[in-house]
Specification:
By secondary structure, the protein is of the alpha/beta class. About 35% of the residues lie in helices and about 20% in strands. The chain contains 9 helices and 11 strands. The strands form 3 sheets. Strands 3-2-1-4-10-6 form a 6-stranded mixed beta sheet, sandwiched between helices. A 3-stranded antiparallel beta sheet has the order 7-9-8. A two-stranded antiparallel sheet has the order 5-11. Helix 1 links the parallel strand 2 and strand 3. The radius of gyration is 18 Å and the shape is globular. The chain starts with a strand and ends with a strand.
């Protein structure tokens, strides 16, 4: 099984998350920018350069389009390999990787991606949190939250007053062309913001319960119970409620954690 990572844009945003050496034997990084690729190679990573001059794909250079880089890279990956596991850089190994890890993945469905969520009225809760705590944010973030709220309403399941969506920190494919289908869904529906996650929701076309049964992996959660977006107390219960729902259908053995 090949392990796939993707890196685009200003690499200084990510170096703190990137392990000094590859964690897995068959680990490949699809990367934009030769200088970034050269540094990764020096660190021991096997790189596949998507563009040796530009740090981003021209079509995906805005905050609202940037995550299409993942789908484009994975569309290439599935032409190279029949089986692969994509991991975001903020996914950490919390239990030694052994034979059981690979068996648990292969014992689930041919496409896997965990779920996570946001509370209803997340947009308003976020604005209140920023005002109350006098936070100084990247100016792109408020516009991102506004766009996200619109898409959460359109492309999510509802559970216990929360919007539930796939969490693309982990994506496994075995014998499928799922990534290419996700990329087509993104283009056809003109998705923005959490592009790959909303595309995965559209790809599944099923109930939340059916999604958990068919697509939820057994080695990672979308978010841990204690996680809350921007450390917002208004989000504190969301992850726990969603994980409890998942636990009704499958028993997980946690090897990876989405930080």
């Amino acid at each position: 099984m090949k392990i796939v990572r993707v890196l685009w844009g200003d690499p200084t945003r990510f170096w703190s998350e990137i392990p000094e050496r590859p964690i897995f034997n068959d680990e490949f990084v699809f990367v934009w920018g030769k200088s970034t690729a050269d540094k990764l190679s020096e660190m021991g990573y096997r790189v596949i350069v998507m563009n040796d001059i530009q740090l981003t794909h021209p079509e995906f250079s805005t905050p609202n389009d940037q995550y299409a880089h993942k789908l484009l890279a994975l569309s290439v990956a599935e032409m190279m390999w029949d089986e692969y596991l994509f991991l975001d850089w903020d996914v950490k190994v919390v239990r030694p990787i052994d034979v059981r890890f690979w068996d648990l993945i292969r014992g689930r469905g041919p496409v896997q991606c965990p779920i996570y969520g946001y509370p209803f009225e997340y947009q308003q809760k976020f604005k209140s949190h920023v005002a109350e705590n006098e936070l100084v944010l990247d100016p792109n973030i408020p516009a991102w939250i506004d766009s996200q709220q619109i898409n959460l309403i359109r492309h999510s399941w509802s559970h216990e007053q929360n919007h539930v969506i796939p969490c693309f920190c982990f994506f496994y494919s075995r014998g499928t062309k799922a990534a290419s289908k996700l990329f087509d869904i993104y283009k056809t529906n003109k998705l923005v913001n959490c592009i790959e996650e909303f595309a995965m929701y559209c790809f599944a076309q099923c109930s939340l319960e059916e999604y958990i049964t068919q697509y939820e992996p057994g080695v990672i959660r979308g978010r841990e119970n204690e996680y809350s977006h921007f450390d917002m107390t208004a989000c504190a219960e969301t992850s726990g409620l969603i994980n409890s729902k998942v636990d009704e259908y499958i028993r997980k053995e946690i090897y990876l954690m989405h930080i």
